[in-house]
């Protein structure tokens, strides 16, 4: 169990940046019953999507002193940030503030994948490179693509227009809850407080989009197909649906990684660190099949 640095009445203090995000909210839920001083860092003082017994610390990335003040007395920091052009600057600012505040260990949510110019993969590479220059313990979590990206296909499956440029390539999709479980284990680990390590996180096996279509078909009781498109055709479809160019390019880039099976590896890290096997894409689809019904 994580030990306190002695600044919080004997209770360890864990700060969570990105507490209302997919991983952050699941992490908060898993930590709230622990004997911790748990604090959510937020840019919005009116945020209401965290449990009432979790403290809030307001930060302003344009005021560096607010970051250090929010982290004062913190033992461990979980760091996640929504994809945005400010991601690199904001995460580096928070990392530097953590070092200045005496935080002992940072658990950073990153992304798996090859060296790339694709956002946000290249942004995570820049942030990781900065973190590696600092004298602080850290655990970098590099999950494969989250399985709930499939929720984007819900309406398209319902009206028989689902498709993309992923071809028959393989991707080992991971459940958000499994990433949160690994983050929890890393934050509570007292065996490696000064270690600097990276963890590649995947589901139990890689699947293709046509295989996902087969699984949805079984669950819905009707035939669902994944319509194969070129990258250019898929980009036009996404833009026509109302997405902006930034999001459309990100999704087409993901399709390219899927097509090339660049995220197809299978690791045992989730089970090794949490004690349970990772949830499968089929498990997620079974739980969320209502998203795909007409």
Structure overview:
With 294 residues, the protein is α/β, with parallel strands linked by helices. The protein has helices spanning 22-31, 64-71, 87-101, 121-131, 154-158, 176-188, 209-220, 231-240, 245-259, 269-274, 281-287, and strands at 13-17, 37-42, 55-58, 76-79, 105-109, 137-143, 163-164, 170-171, 196-201, 207-208, 227-228.
C-alpha end-to-end distance = 47 Å
Q: Counting H and I runs of at least 4 residues, what is the number of helices?
A: 11
Structural class: alpha/beta
Q: What is the name of the CATH class of the domain at 13-144 and 176-201 and 265-278?
A: Alpha Beta
Cα-atom radius of gyration: 20 Å
Shape: globular
H/E element string? EHEEHEHEHEHEEHEEHEHHHH
Biggest sheet descriptor: 7 strands, parallel
Number of strands: 11
CATH topology of the domain at 13-144 and 176-201 and 265-278: Rossmann fold
**Unreliable runs:** none
Annotated CATH homologous superfamily of the domain at 13-144 and 176-201 and 265-278:
NAD(P)-binding Rossmann-like Domain
Overall pLDDT confidence: 92
Descriptors for this entry?
single chain, 294 residues, alpha/beta, 7-stranded parallel beta sheet, two-stranded parallel ribbon, 11 helices
List the helices and strands and how they pair.
Blueprint: E1 13-17, H1 22-31, E2 37-42, E3 55-58, H2 64-71, E4 76-79, H3 87-101, E5 105-109, H4 121-131, E6 137-143, H5 154-158, E7 163-164, E8 170-171, H6 176-188, E9 196-201, E10 207-208, H7 209-220, E11 227-228, H8 231-240, H9 245-259, H10 269-274, H11 281-287
Parallel strand pairs: 1-2, 1-4, 2-3, 4-5, 5-6, 6-9, 7-11
Antiparallel strand pairs: 8-10
InterPro entries: Ergot_Alk_Oxidoreductase (IPR051604), NAD(P)-bd_dom (IPR016040), NAD(P)-bd_dom_sf (IPR036291)
Domain NAD(P)-binding: 18-189
Protein name: SDR family oxidoreductase
